[in-house]
Structure formats: C-alpha cells, structure tokens
Design a protein that fits this description.
Elements: H1 20-24, H2 28-47, H3 53-83, H4 89-104
Helix pairs in contact: 2-3
Amino acid sequence: MSKKKFNKDVEFGTPEIITVDEIGYMTEDALRDRGNRLEMERNQLAASGKNPYLWEVELAYIQREQNIRKSRSEFHLEYLKKFGQNKNFEDVLDSSHSDNVDELN
C-alpha cells in the first residue's frame, strides 16, 4: 500500500496501482470515485511542484474504461432503436444482411 495523505505538507508515495482486469470489474461509482481521487491527488502534486506522472497514467486507464463503457452504452441504445425488442431473430438477420449488401453496391 502506498503512503498517501491529502495534506499539502506531507509527501505522496505512489498511487495504488490496479490491473486493467480489475478496472473492468469496477462499478460505475467505484470508477468515478477512483478517477476523482486520482485527479485530486494529481492536482495536489502538481501544485506542490512534484511530478504527477504516475497519477496521470492511472487516471488515463480509468478514463479509458469510462469512455469504453460510454461508447458501448451508446451503441447498445442505437441497436435497440434500430432493431427494437419486438422483432424476432430472422427479421434482425434479414435487415442486417440487406444493409450489408446495400453497402457493398
């Protein structure tokens, strides 16, 4: 575990480093909280003249996961709008196939 305190006068150790796999299983709330905490710590380090690089790397992984989830959610909503929940599977296959054929022509 790292030595982190939120007091400006106390030196920071390193951020808690977690794997990409662990990030993938975090809840939305946990991602948001971790991102906020890393950003706050990064800003405190930068304000005190210390190098916040390690915090920026960890924050980038969190932001990447948030962007992936946002994109996935947007695509899912588009899919539901396009195909709806009341269509049966053959209708979805037929319309998908005809869309792909139109794109090739």
